[in-house]
Write a structure and sequence with these properties.
It comes from Candidatus Pullichristensenella excrementigallinarum. Pfam families: NYN, OST-HTH. The protein is an alpha/beta fold. It contains 13 helices and twelve strands. The chain folds into three domains: about 5-145, 5'-nuclease (Rossmann fold, 3-Layer(aba) Sandwich); about 160-240, Orthogonal Bundle (Arc Repressor Mutant, subunit A); about 255-325, Orthogonal Bundle (Arc Repressor Mutant, subunit A), CATH 1.10.10. The model is unreliable at about 150-165 (pLDDT under 50).
Amino acid sequence: MGKANFAVFVDLENVGGKESMLRYVIEKVKIQGDILLGKVYGYTDQYSDLKQCLLSNTFSVVPSLRWGKCQKNNLDIQLVIDAMEVAYVNPLIDSFCIVSGDSDYTPLVGKLKSMGKHVMGISRSEAASEIFINACNEFIFLESVAAKRPPVRKSKTKETAVNGDINELVTQVVTILEDQDEEQMYASELKDTLTRLRPDFSERDFGCATFGKLMAVLSEKSPRLKVWTDASSLMVGLISAEPQAQKLDKSNWLPAFSQALERFKAEGFDRVNPSILKSTIQADYPDFEERQIGFKRFSDVMKALEKEKLLVVEMDEAHTMLLKIC
């Protein structure tokens, strides 16, 4: 899919209201295209730390007035009405991002898809319904990238205005390329994406006269980036990461799992899906297998972690297993 025009609808109560999560959602969408419209539902004073992020991205809010037991249902209905109105009256918008995991939105997803719209879902795993996940064209678990999400960029100071933060830019470029099917882009497309993410982006902030020269600097800075010319067009891509030298075994598996759980906790996730935890470990240790650390199944690993008081295994109302991080 080429550059998309998104409408983003955020159910704050379902996904939590941390600024870091909202910034990640916005970044993930902007990597794929422009956000033409954004709304958050259920806003209250407890989410006041989101104000700057919402205002700078021109999101509007639908407040939660906390009047009566049906307020949450009213907000859900309002989100559906707003999304359908946009789908019918704004032909510029071809993609929708529903930031929620609530199965109540499944009929909305079906209707949007029948109108030819691309639907992306984003949610914490503990709040995500399998029905809603399967209904979307694509679905992203917030936890799955929590550990590798680049830090929020701070406002420029006199020191960074000239030199820029090269390391942060490298991380952001790698993140953008990882989202591409072939992990490569035309340099012009990459610059457009960076400008969507950072409207004040300029090569000169990093001491380079052209974007091509900046990419050459980044490729020298990072072993993961490569720059080349294809039919007179400048390309930027990823070099496959080196395999993890260290392997998990019976002597070191517990600290590795403990660190992964701590990263989730630090990002504000109190519960995670077991599959997310396993995929995180496999990202750090591609050769990971349960038998390497003395277990037959991943469920046995979870029982051992529970015995170590690192987590508690729970079942939600849909009988989906969740891991509560201690």
